[in-house]
Write a structure and sequence with these properties.
By secondary structure, the protein is an alpha+beta fold. It has six helices and five strands. Keywords: Cell junction, Cell membrane, Membrane, Tight junction, Transmembrane, Transmembrane helix.
């Protein structure tokens, strides 16, 4: 019981939030649903076009007919917000993984005392990694209705974008929690 008392709450919070954030941003990065295009003129009424940062899928919902790898006729993937997301989302994932490795070494549950400096450093890695995925998510959202789409169609935010947002925020909060470990170093 004494053993569990040794790991500060902030570290536990960081080690819970950041992996959850990583999972969400990973899903957001790979799942092709940053934007949904529906009610496309001259197309079946239940046809939905799902656009991610790597792929584009069309689904006819009444017959559950889903096809990915759709041709990008409107130059959607050439758009700056999409390009930026293609660069920053994977960078953020790598940085988050790195931060979590450092965090695991710093929190070191199998040792008597956590290493506050390492946990703090992990926080400083995880904080920008969260920001790195938040930037493309925000930018994409801001440009969502400006990005090329079939004329007259209806555009909505897709779940991948929402997950990227949530994941980024969890990583930022987890990073902040771990960065609080520096406070402990100063006390020593």
């Amino acid at each position: 019981h004494l053993h569990s008392m040794r790991t500060p709450t902030a570290m536990i919070v960081g080690l819970v939030l950041c992996p959850c954030g990583l999972l969400l941003t990973f899903t957001g990065t790979v799942a092709p649903n940053w934007r949904q295009v529906s009610l496309i003129p001259n197309q079946p009424i239940d046809l939905v076009l799902e656009q991610g940062i790597w792929d584009m899928c069309r689904e006819q919902q009444s017959i559950h007919d889903r096809l990915c790898g759709q041709a990008d006729e409107l130059g959607y993937f050439e758009q700056v917000p999409v390009r930026v997301a293609q660069g920053l989302m994977p960078t953020s994932l790598v940085l988050t993984l790195l931060g979590l490795v450092v965090a695991a070494l710093g929190v070191r549950c199998w040792q008597k005392e956590p290493r506050h400096l390492l946990a703090g450093v992990a926080g400083l890695v995880l904080l920008p990694s969260g920001l790195l995925s938040l930037v493309p998510a925000c930018w994409y959202t801001h440009e969502l209705w400006a990005l090329p789409a079939p004329a007259g169609s209806t555009l909505v935010v897709g779940y991948s974008l929402v997950l990227s947002y949530l994941g980024s925020c969890l990583e930022i909060l987890g990073g902040l929690a771990l960065a609080l470990s520096f406070h402990h170093c100063c006390k020593e």
